[in-house]
Amino acid sequence: MASSALTRRAFLAVTGGAFAARAASRGRAATGPTRLVLLGTAGGPTPKLRRAAPAQALVVGDRVYLVDCGDGVARQMRLAGLPCQRLRAVFVTHHHSDHNAGYGPLFLLAWASGLESPVDAYGPPPLERMTRLFLEANDFDIQTRMADEERPPLAPLVRPHEIGLARTKARPQRSGGGAAREIFRDDRVRVTCALNHHPPIEQSFAYRFETADRSIVISGDTSYAESVRELARGADVLVHEALYAPYWQRPGAPQPPAVVRHILASHTDAADAGRLAAEAGVKTLVLTHFVPSDPPDAVTDEQWLEAASRHFKGQVILGKDLMEL
Predict the structure, then answer these.
(1) Which CATH class name applies to 2-324?
(2) Domain parsing of the chain, residue ranges
(3) What is the pLDDT of residue 174?
């Protein structure tokens, strides 16, 4: 009952009009159209009071395709009614800890929950080394459960694939990267990626998902980037990170100057996210990865909406944990 109430509260937080939101089913395979579930919408590496770490799930039939693995992502999937053992693929945008701290634990917990089919994982280097070292660090638990509980080996169920893209040298501060590249395709989804612009990290990606009924783009962490704009061209939904610059530009910002400089240089102000959405011609803009996320009332919903709607006249939705779109 508590989890159902939480889900209802999340749905009530949808802002921007009559965007179709359907309650996540509990304990059954998902069917029907492609669903987007925002598992965590906080920004930054510290634990937040009311938002979980970044993660999004696309559900197509009975398969789950996950973008980013913030801390606690396996529990967020459970709260959303998405069984971990239905994972088909995982896509990591970049290797800041708020986006990958739950990567290894996700596979370990999915395996303990009955994962039997291999999961492909995609992301920038050193994804393969990270995967290997996590399995080594947890070898005692894995070997014990294999012997005591007759579980299958975990390592063959995790298939990491490293992505490497060349960055555009001309106007790198805005271009982000070169042309998008297809990295994954099965009978339900096609995934392309492009470099975004998240300094000082060189290999940081945005992803576009094409299914039979929807096109959904996840920006990852980025400042305004032309590559993200082109990747999102004509998409049904753009899920874009959001910074509220005035909060950080005021005197007495609650972080050291070096952190504030990083935040302003490597994230996108909500107004610019709206501008990018307008230029890309997307139908719906979903804001997520809010900076700041704490304190919860540091920036009001009205302020986020006003900034994002300054240039974008389509539908704007303020993401909330466990919201389904």
Answers:
(1) alpha beta
(2) 2-324
(3) 61
pLDDT band at 26 (very low <50, low <70, confident <90, very high): very low
- pLDDT band for position 166 (50/70/90)? confident
Per-residue model confidence as pLDDT tens digits over 194-207? 999 999 999 999 99
Q: 82: which 2 tokens? A: 């998405």
In three-state form (DSSP H/G/I as H, E/B as E, the rest C), the secondary structure along the chain is: CHHHHHHHHHHHCCCCCCCCCCCCCCCCCCCCCCEEEEEECECCCCCCCCCCCCEEEEEECCEEEEECCCCCHHHHHHHCCCCHHHEEEEECCCCCHHHHCCHHHHHHHHHHCCCCCCEEEEECCCHHHHHHHHHHHCHHHHHHHHHHHCCCCCHHHEEEEECCCCCCCCCHHHHCCCCCEEEEECCCCEEEEEECCECCECCCEEEEEECCCCEEEECCCCCCCHHHHHHCCCCCEEEEEEECHHHHHCCCCCCCHHHHHHHHHHCCEHHHHHHHHHHHCCCEEEEEEEECCCCCCCCCHHHHHHHHCCCCCCEEEECCCCEEC
**Nearest alpha carbon to residue 121 among 153, 84, 159, 156:** 159
- To 5 degrees, how large is the angle CA 184–CA 189–CA 192? 45
